[in-house]
Amino acid sequence: MPKFGDLESAIMEQIWHAEGPLLVREVLEGLDRGLAYNTVHTVTEILHRKGWLTKERDGRAFRYGAAAGRDKYVAGLVTEALSVTDDRTAALVGFVEGMRPEEADELHRLLSAAREQDMQA
Amino acid sequence: MIVALSLLGYALVLAVAGPRLLRAASWADRAPRLAIAAWQALTVTILASVALAGLALTFPTVSVSGDLAELLRACVMAIREQYASPGGAAAGATGAVLSLAVLGRTVWCIGAGLAGMTRERARHSRILDIVGHTDGHRGVVVLDSDEPAVYCLPGRRRRTVVTTGALQALDEAQLDAVLAHEHAHLSERHDLVLGLSRALASAFPAVALFRLAAEETARLVELRADDAAAARSGRLTVAGALLAVASGGIAHLSPAVALAAGGSGAAARVRRLIPPNNPLGRARTAAGLFAVAALFALPVLLLGGPAAAAAGHNLCPDANASASSPAP
């Protein structure tokens, strides 16, 4: 039995890769992990409640689709990470903020000069 | 009254002179850890001085005699005496309000800041769990994004996150340096240092010093983490890594960075790393640490000094004879 978070991630992966909304049975087949139907159904429902999945009736079953593309979530995280300098809460600590191109060019020159000096020394 | 006024005066002097000493100093960039401690000490001491000044107004004479019963009696008598006059009562009330307001506001804003930080981090972490890939070999979480970005999520489940864009921009040695940088942030709990300074800045927005302290702390923790990375990977490698990540992320240049007159913080960090290392000497670091400790100790001495002197006196001459037993 994989960790719960792993399963959520794997289910989202399935649905993001699919052409359209999937039945729980189709998700289960795609996962290929020997999981019980009920397990996958429960986690899919949880993802729906959390707002990750949309749900539409299809006959007697439901089809689940992604509420938003994976790129959108990733872009959201990256934007948060890059705006950490004006983040008031310090929830994340970033590596470095952006730089103006002309500044970067000048620093590249300075750095290569320093590297050459190091090599000679 | 004199104690309260000297404490307030001390806070004022620190608020005016402190930033000048710390900002003008070229040593801060050479000893970022000491400078972070100095800023923290400065802000906490100013707050403590104001709160203690309020306390000194409310409780005019505090005896430090060993006998608790006598101490309490002495306090009660002294307080009664002060509140007998309308001026004394007003001063006492002002002091109590001052103390409570400063302490309450501080505690509240730190609590709210920490709660907000935890909430935001948990939300970020939940999304990361689903959209990120774990790279067990490097011990990082990878995000599929062309935008080069590296950051860490501090806290109980601390993690470092790297985008595929950053992985492409960095070579192995540079990536190693970046991870050492993030590791320094995580292991030295820079998030708490930043959280405290930002909470104080939001608690007292009218006091420019706290905002300045938050800005400087944010800058200095990066310098400190750069130094930690440089100790592992070499200064030029760290400079190269900074440049690779920063110059790739131009699209997201925040307005605050773009407007900074003396160039962005990133550029300043790269410039600092290029010349040979010049850390602050041991003697000067020790002197700095001593100064930081003295900063803290002074208000306590201000409050405790007169109290210690008063301990030798009989505080309540009109009370019954047993209360006037000799104090140590």
TrEMBL record, chain A:
Which domain of life does the UniProt lineage start with? Bacteria
Give a single Pfam family match.
Answer: Penicillinase_R
Key words, A-Z: DNA-binding, Transcription, Transcription regulation
- What GO molecular function terms would the record report? DNA binding
Kindly list the biological process annotations in GO that this record carries: negative regulation of DNA-templated transcription
Similarity section: Belongs to the BlaI transcriptional regulatory family.
Q: What is this protein called?
A: BlaI/MecI/CopY family transcriptional regulator
Automatic annotation (TrEMBL), chain B:
| InterPro entries on file | Beta-lactam_resp_regulator, Peptidase_M48
UniProt-listed GO biological process terms = proteolysis
Q: Which cofactor does it need?
A: Zn(2+)
Q: Which residues form the Peptidase M48 domain?
A: 140-206
Spell out the CDD domains in the cross-references: M56_BlaR1_MecR1_like (cd07326)
Instruction: Recite the UniProt cofactor note for this protein.
Output: Binds 1 zinc ion per subunit.
Which GO molecular function, any one, fits this protein according to its record? metalloendopeptidase activity
UniProt superkingdom? Bacteria
Q: Which UniProt keywords apply?
A: Hydrolase, Membrane, Metal-binding, Metalloprotease, Protease, Transmembrane, Transmembrane helix, Zinc
Transmembrane domains' residue ranges? 34-57, 283-303
| Sequence similarity | Belongs to the peptidase M48 family.
PANTHER family of this UniProt entry? POSSIBLE SENSOR-TRANSDUCER PROTEIN BLAR (PTHR34978), SLR0241 PROTEIN (PTHR34978:SF3)
- What name has this protein been given in UniProt? M56 family metallopeptidase
